[in-house]
Amino acid sequence: MVGDPLKAWSNGRLKSTNHRVMMSGDKDRFSIAAFIMPNEGTIIKTPKELIDEEHPQLFKDFDFMKFFFFAFSNPARHIDSGQLLYDFAALSPPVSNGHMDK
User: Where is each Isopenicillin N synthase-like Fe(2+) 2OG dioxygenase domain found (predicted)?
Assistant: First the structure.
């Protein structure tokens, strides 16, 4: 979910990825999570310079906090599925080779 607003802002040029951790061996691993949240009322909007005939706008403009609450409002929703941004803000279904880019 963290990368989805950046994906929308970049009109799909930057990809959001799922978080994955793979461990091998028997050594301990320590992690620190860091999160950045835009100010309340921040609108995620694709700059007009990133929209043209070859790159039509993929996502509607949206309030980040509304997206955040949408992501966590339903426990059954899979945040890392790659589908969340499309469910919330897609202007049309993604056109690709039949697989959603993740």
Answer: 2-38
List pLDDT tens digits, range 58-73. 999 999 999 999 988 8
**Is the pLDDT assigned to residue 7 strictly greater than 50?**
yes
Distance CA 53, CA 46 (A): 14
What is the β-pairing status of strands 43-44 and 62-63? antiparallel
pTM assigned to the model: 0.73
The answer to whether the CB of 36 falls within 8 A of the CB of 6 is no
SS3 category, 63: strand
- The DSSP symbol for 59 reads B
Evaluate whether 11 touches 57 at the Cβ level (below 8 Å).
yes
Here the tokens at position 20 are: 């994955």
